[in-house]
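ARCHIVE CARD
Drawer: 12
Card no.: 0347
Subject: one protein chain, sequence and derived structure
Cross-reference: see card 0346
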Amino acid sequence: MNADIRDLASLRDALRDFAAARDWRQFHTPKNLAMAMIVEAAELVEHFQWLTPEQSLALAPEKLAEVRDEVADTLIYLVELADALGIDPIAAARDKIAKNAVKYPAPERTP
């Protein structure tokens, strides 16, 4: 199953199946998923607390593996939250980038 996860849609589908097989969908309300996501994001941040910027760029392999797991946990809850609310995360990100380009235009470069 995991080898078939190649994009957000297949991840979403795998997460739906995973939760349904465990009867967890009843608990996957937007409120619960948002709260779970922020808990995982906080666990991610803990790995960087008190590191210098340079140290944060040079994590030891075992620390990087732990960070990888927290990134995965955060992404999983974000995808499940978007699914519960009927939001396409790619479309939302694309639209937000367009809004940000208007709000924060890149400086013109002089040749």
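Annotation on reverse: The first helix runs from residue 8 to 21. Residues 32 and 56 are 30 Å apart (CA to CA).
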